[in-house]
Amino acid sequence: MNKQLICIFAVFLSFISLEVSASSDDGIISLNGKWELSYWKQPEQPVLSPDGMKQMEVKTITATVPGNVELDLLSAGLIDDPMIGNNVNELRKWEEFQWCYSKSFTSPQLEKGQRLQLFFGGIDCLADIWLNGKRIGKPENMLIEHSFDVTNEIKQGENNLLQVIIRSSVIEGQNYFLGSFSIGNFPSEESTFIRKAPHAYGWDILPRLVSAGLWRDVELRVLEQARFKDVHYMVANLDTAQRNVRLYIDAQLKLPFEKFDKVKAVYTLNRNGKEAYKGTTAVVSPAFRYIMELKNADLWWPRGYGEPALYEAKVELVDEDGSVLATDTKRIGLRTVQLERTDINLPDDPGKFCFIVNGERIFIHGTNWVPLDALHSRDNSLVDEAIEMAVDLNCNMIRCWGGSVYEDHHFFDLCDENGILIWQDFAMGCTFYPQRSSFTRNIEEEVISVVCKLRNHPSVALWSGNNEDDIALRWSLLPFNLDPNRDVVTRQVIPSVLYEFDPTRPYLPSSPYISEAVYQKGCDEKYWPENHLWGPRGYYKDPFYIDAQCAFVSEIGYHGCPNLESLKKMMTEDCVYPWVKDHEWNDEWVTKSVRRFPVWGKTFDRNNLMINQVRLLFGEVPSKLEDFIFASQSVQAEAMKYFIEMWRGNKFNKTGIIWWNLRDGWPLISDAIVDYYNSKKMAYYYIRNVQKDVCIFMNDARDGNHPLVAVNDTRHASEGDVKVTDVASGKQIFEGKFYVPANGRVQISSLPEQKGQGILLIRYKVGNQEFTNHYLYGEPPFKLKEYKQLLQKTNLYTVK
């Protein structure tokens, strides 16, 4: 090492006096905690090394890892909270900066044969990693994990300096040449080549916040000579009635050559602390398969359909003397999942889109999952409460939307435990992505990383190529009639990876998917078996919704204003009210609508959805903020309830509804039923009522009569009592019993269409449990005051 480099190290070490946490039993040493963060404006030729930093005007602050640079700037008093008012717009000027994270640490002493790996759970995004003055890696993907063998670069038992230099994603994006297909679509064109969460460049549900940072854990990992590289569990065959399961276990390992033929692999399955299976085999190669034949096994089921049974699955490498050389432990569920899907929906041959688990058709009622936070280092602290809400709402599926990041294991562990199926988009959305090998190689690497990380989770039910990329071609290039089936990314690269690494799970090229058969018909929505129902966003009983031809709707939503307490948190005091002045929305309400660039001026469309929808249902728009909030939330709640009941009332002609969406990832005005502060809107409680496993509700009248419907999303028949009364008059409309077969639907009765306007209260009993629901009858406009009074009389919901 030359003297100049030694001096540079000395300077850094003089102001970095940071400790790392102690080594854990599994050989992992955390490098989380306090780091130093340096920053400077990126020059025309970016700084790629510590030497290059010497030429820059560098400033340094304290940083926290996991973290985002904005949170460190906020802690240092250099920016205002981007969650409040228009402050997020001030982050635009920071997009041209480079960043350097620095940390000194003492390395452990390695024993003979051990290796040392440096692991990053998430780096945002374009980075050069230096250890003790040597570049060890150049990761360029925010969305996947990165690891590097640093055995030869580390100074064992001594001080080491780790530096991560991050380039500006916005400036670097200018280096890529885009094709015509990639220009003019929903996200910024600059984002298409950069493997970063698409929403970061601005969306209609999240602001432009092009962050940087070490947003997940950083660790040193001590690797033993004998170790597992991967263990993959696949259910090859399953008999639901007999509960017999054939389970494949594919293992790959590192092992000193002299140990082959002498070491054995020991396989055990444990359930609730009891051993369910044990077997052994000799290890003769670094990759091998073991087949378990299980009798009377406990199966993993989605919510409502049975227990989500989980096993502790363990594989050990055991030496001749009985010593354990390596262990791999996972939690697995025994289940099969299929997607019964046809390529086109025709009048005489209706399209199919139905999930089947363990041979049982599953009616889906669930939610779309968007970023938990625009600054993703905070995601982990928010997962538990969000999943608790999904469980409380009885969601049996979560669709992880393609504009976000991939959630970490903890999210999937919770879904495994709670029987929530996962529809996982790959992180692409609303854009036609580059087709060149320079891009597709990155996608291949990403898909391999994500699939191999998550494929052992029983909750993962579907891989989807992207969100709305197929139909993005129609938005901006409709006259050219381009065929999305020529897309190399979703029709070749991704399915090839899945065929090799996860062949047992269904794959959907895009959502919605424009198949070749649909394309040949002209791409009209009526041909799509699965669709996103947004459309004109008018009255929720418009023909657009009630005449939708798709069997499965994977996005559908309605705007609802947040609660007053949340508005006061997300805006400055003077801008909470009036929200409209001189027929224009005030600027903070526009920012929260969301507006990606202030130079676009006043953009009202998103907020005007609320005004239009309130006027359609109630005939007027209240001027008092509290009344407006109640009216807006009421419309959203009635709409969302109506959509779910309309879909469930037509089970299994309709096979699932995944509504938009559970929770906001930034303080805004949106379709979410829970805002960024975890404050629930009225729609939350309406949806909770209509997503019960056994649910009774009324659908709209046909030929002068309302169907009173019972649905049963369990594998056991259900029966009980039901009573329907008019809330205003107290008049009893119906009283009787009901029986609904397992996983079925029945029409209990046909009730005369009610005259005028009002609310019917539905009370029903299943076993010892009592439930309630309501039905709003009549034609709009309704009087807001009368609606509120009737709702209070139901005692169903807390009405302020």
Automatic annotation (TrEMBL):
InterPro entries (UniProt xref): Beta-gal/glucu_dom_sf, Beta-mannosidase-like_N2, Beta-mannosidase_GH2, Galactose-bd-like_sf, GH, Glyco_hydro_2_AS, Glyco_hydro_2_cat, Ig-like_fold
Claim: Signal is one of the keywords in the record: yes
Cross-referenced Pfam families: Glyco_hydro_2 (PF00703), Glyco_hydro_2_C (PF02836), Glyco_hydro_2_N2 (PF22666)
Domain Glycoside hydrolase family 2 catalytic: start-end pairs: 355-470
One of the record's GO molecular function terms: beta-mannosidase activity
Keyword terms: Glycosidase, Hydrolase, Signal
EC number: 3.2.1.25
Catalytic activity: Hydrolysis of terminal, non-reducing beta-D-mannose residues in beta-D-mannosides
Lineage: superkingdom: Bacteria
First and last residue of the signal peptide: 1-22
Domain Beta-mannosidase-like galactose-binding: 59-216
Presence of the UniProt keyword Hydrolase in the record: yes
All residue ranges annotated as the Glycoside hydrolase family 2 immunoglobulin-like beta-sandwich domain in the record: 258-335
Family: Belongs to the glycosyl hydrolase 2 family.
Official protein name in the record: beta-mannosidase
